[in-house]
Amino acid sequence: DHITKQLDRLYNAQAPETGIIKNFIKAETEANTQLRSYANNVKQNHLDNYVYFRGLTEFSNKCSKNCYYCGIRAGNKNVDRYDVTDEDILDAVRFAHEQNYGSVVLQAGERSDKHFVERVDKLLRKIKQITNDEIGITISLGEQNYETFKRWFESGAHRYLLRIESSNKILYYKIHPKNEKHSYEHRIQALYDLKDIGYQTGTGVMIGLPFQTRKDLVEDLLFMRRFDIDMVGMGPYIEHQDTPLYKYRNQLLPQQDRFEMTLNMISLLRIIMPDINIASATALQALDPMGREKALKAGANVIMPNVTPGMYRNSYKLYENKPCTDEEAADCVSCLEMRIGLTGNQVGYGKWGDSRHYHNRR
Ligand code: 5AD
Ligand code: SF4
Ligand code: FES
């Protein structure tokens, strides 16, 4: 039928048509359903039905930046700032290793001081050591200089997540302060550096930002394809009351629309980049209790269970309604396994689950 023809055209195109993508981003129920099952098929054909776990540790909410959307921006005085101790981080990694998660993600606010750089370096080496090299390591620690990226790579990190947030430079500067510390060019350069060093390079955007148009979202997808990215994490924008963007809350699309559009973005990206890793963002679950599972049925193949020690979780609030932030919610493992089974996928226990695209492009 007509919808399937359009999807075939996207899948087979050398240069995907922006008009088709744009229509699908905010499609009606019928087209949504077809889009998502098409993307799920593309995933099954190019990859397999494994979903890979990345044990996520948000090890510090101290940040030197002031992104206008983010709840832990430096300027927010209503945050209890923490640094998980090295021992507690290593315990979280041990936990992930014992649970047979194939990988961990170390995430924190952005800092670039010498002490921080060295600390991460030591942690990475230690993780390699205590896990006998059996666990993949992704880091997500913001923009750093080439030397730092390289140093962390040599210490054992092999994947890096750095969202471009929006590939439209004008929009980028509406959601970040316009200064040296928040330079669009520098962020792009950082992505080139990561690729050059040899990282599996991940990026992503937020969906439903104030001032964002559907054309921006089309351009975001094409940016990721042009950049030939290995992994992507994208999620809905969720307003946070202690941030400058909160004043635009009445101009946003309803949360439900942001949610549906995120799923559509995931599906579209899967269709135009069949062999990359796509994460089912935690922010999806803040908008729908089954949000992450829906993404796994729409083309995503990675999920990041939080292994941050319970007492810190409540303080890593980038946005409101963040799921699993209660101390008792540590027991997400069996819960997730069941939920993933319901999506027709299985957990890729004990596998790194590297981006197939990374290996294919090299
Ligand atoms: N809503 C959704 N995502 C957010 N992030 C930061 N603040 C928000 C928000 N209010 C995302 C950014 C960042 C990632 C770690 O979290 O995209 O890259
Ligand atoms: Fe810091 Fe990242 Fe939040 Fe920006 S989005 S303020 S860099 S933690
Ligand atoms: Fe968090 Fe089940 S996934 S409690």
Present the secondary structure layout.
Elements: H1 2-12, H2 18-25, H3 29-46, E1 50-60, H4 86-98, E2 103-108, H5 114-130, E3 136-140, H6 146-154, E4 159-161, H7 169-175, H8 184-197, E5 200-203, E6 206-207, H9 214-227, E7 231-236, H10 255-272, E8 277-280, H11 282-287, H12 291-296, E9 302-303, H13 310-313, H14 332-342, E10 346-347, H15 356-361
Bound molecules: 5'-deoxyadenosine (5AD), iron/sulfur cluster and FE2/S2 (inorganic) cluster.
Can you put this structure into words, describing what you see?
The chain has 362 residues and is α/β, with parallel strands linked by helices. It has one domain: Aldolase class I (TIM Barrel). Helix content is 45%, strand content 12%. The protein has 15 helices and 10 strands. The chain has helices at 2-12, 18-25, 29-46, 86-98, 114-130, 146-154, 169-175, 184-197, 214-227, 255-272, 282-287, 291-296, 310-313, 332-342, 356-361; strands spanning 50-60, 103-108, 136-140, 159-161, 200-203, 206-207, 231-236, 277-280, 302-303, 346-347. It has an 8-stranded parallel barrel. Helix 2 crosses helix 9 and helix 3 (29-46) packs parallel to helix 10. The radius of gyration is 19 Å and the shape is globular. Residues 327-331 have low confidence and may be disordered. Bound molecules: 5'-deoxyadenosine, iron/sulfur cluster and FE2/S2 (inorganic) cluster. FE2/S2 (inorganic) cluster (FES) is lined by residues 324, 329, 332, 335-336.
